[in-house]
Amino acid sequence: MPLRKMKIPFLLLFFLWEAESHTASRPNIILVMADDLGIGDPGCYGNKTLRTPNIDRLASGGVKLTQHLAASPLCTPSRAAFMTGRYPVRSGMASWSRTGVFLFTASSGGLPTNEITFAKLLKDQGYSTALIGKWHLGMSCHSKTDFCHHPLHHGFNYFYGISLTNLRDCKPGEGSVFTTGFKRLVFIPLQIIGVTLLTFAALNCLGLLRVPLGIFFSLLFLAALILTLFLGFLHYFRPLNCFMMRNYEIIQQPMSYDNLTQRLTVEAAQFIQRNTETPFLLVLSYLHVHTALFSSKDFAGKSKHGVYGDAVEEMDWSVGQILNLLDELRLANDTLIYFTSDQGAHVEEVSSKGEIHGGSNGIYKGGKANNWEGGIRVPGILRWPRVIQAGQKIDEPTSNMDIFPTVAKLAGAPLPEDRIIDGRDLMPLLEGKSQHSDHEFLFHYCNAYLNAVRWHPQNSTSIWKAFFFTPNFNPVGSNGCFATHVCFCFGSYVTHHDPPLLFDISKDPRERNPLTPATEPRFYEILKVIQEAADRHTQTLPEVPNQFSWDNFLWKPWLQLCCPSSGLSCQCDREKQDKRLSR
């Protein structure tokens, strides 16, 4: 009898330990992604004037990764890699042309249906899954109701946000991302037509050439057609591409920036509150700090960095609201939180008034749309109080693709065996079980072009980075491609290097001093190893449909979504209507 009584407490302890172990191995997961936030923006990465106390609190309570790398320096391919754990070139989500992101909601390209996201894996393991905010990975394929690329077809139970991205064109008075296109397709042709008409008229008046009236009318008709299409584009682009959705339904078209971050925060908080008894995955994908910049009246004009700083500080407030809610619900210890940016700050973002609308990449060269460190080295913060020791800093190379295998393993989901997963499980690094990154090589793509390779040899502190080509900054000597607003990846926009440009990032993180055979005795040996790795890597790339082909990229009217019963105006505001009804 005494032996039996002794067994009962031991059994209770065993079951309690099993329950706690199960909870620790299947945490709630919150993945927070900023848009175009530079590594030099948060206080925990060295900024002394931008106030980010909540992002800093997250870092002090967990691990700060100092060499965390986006798999691409552009929104769409970076997010595709993040969601799938694979280089975007493997899924066709990397462009061979100038434009590397989707610009129309009614394009047919997007994250292919055969790609597996971490949301799909976690949903299959019983997680409740939600995406709040920006998607930018496509919408429909063949009809406007097939939603083949929609978040709900890629593993999310719930979606609230925008299917495309935040653009200057979405906010009246903030300019346009199509300025270069307008110049080439509208203003220059109109000028040519105007000069031609005046020349013909003068020749006709002087009697030097008799020009039929039909020629004049044809040129006038062509000018009128170009002008009509241009004005139509200006009028309709915003409602057709800048709208808010809840699941498959448009709820605000065009979207309003009024308290937009607050609305995203409320939606995220309500999702957490609905799932306190079940494991959940929340992807909170902010529109901040991509232009057009915005902030609510509580933050406007409050920072030391103008409208950009106001937006950063509002986003930080939102992060704080989520952290506070986890504390209130006593979920903090059982929740893994990850904070990052999809790529580096957009250094060329300067308004027509000369205001800086891009962030800081700290000491690093370049920015968004190129593979200098400023374009791909991003904030990487992870916190899980029950498991990860607070206050750590890890300098090893890691990638945003690593989130896929990390959360899959934590959720108990086996990785797909029918495809290459390029990400690596971060937990051995985060728990201190490993001191070295599992990434010996990382491949840096400029759209679909292999731009550079990073090599971190085992048992070495060196981190070699070889560029096969580099962007031509303009003006010469600047830190970006200001003439074209972003850097492009081919032709006259780049300089090819033979032999490749080689840096040791561990000693020269600013990438100021390329190595030579005179300064690095192993120069050719290092480049040989890197080239062999690049060759092995490219051999693993199957031919896949190009999601950025002109057929997939261009606007298709039959795929265009509009508010029900809104007619040709494509305008509605169910957010405002629902708010009135709830009063």
From TrEMBL:
InterPro entries: Alkaline_phosphatase_core_sf (IPR017850), Sulfatase (IPR050738), Sulfatase_CS (IPR024607), Sulfatase_N (IPR000917). The chain crosses the membrane at residues 186-209, 216-237. PANTHER family: ARYLSULFATASE FAMILY MEMBER, STERYL-SULFATASE. Pfam families: Sulfatase (PF00884), Sulfatase_C (PF14707). GO terms for cellular component: endoplasmic reticulum lumen. Residues 27-413 form the Sulfatase N-terminal domain. Keywords: Calcium, Hydrolase, Membrane, Metal-binding, Signal, Transmembrane, Transmembrane helix. Its cofactor is Ca(2+). Residues 1-21 form the signal peptide. This is Steroid sulfatase. The keyword Calcium applies. GO terms for molecular function: arylsulfatase activity; metal ion binding. CDD domains: ES. PROSITE patterns: SULFATASE_1, SULFATASE_2. Belongs to the sulfatase family. It comes from the Eukaryota. The keyword Calcium applies.
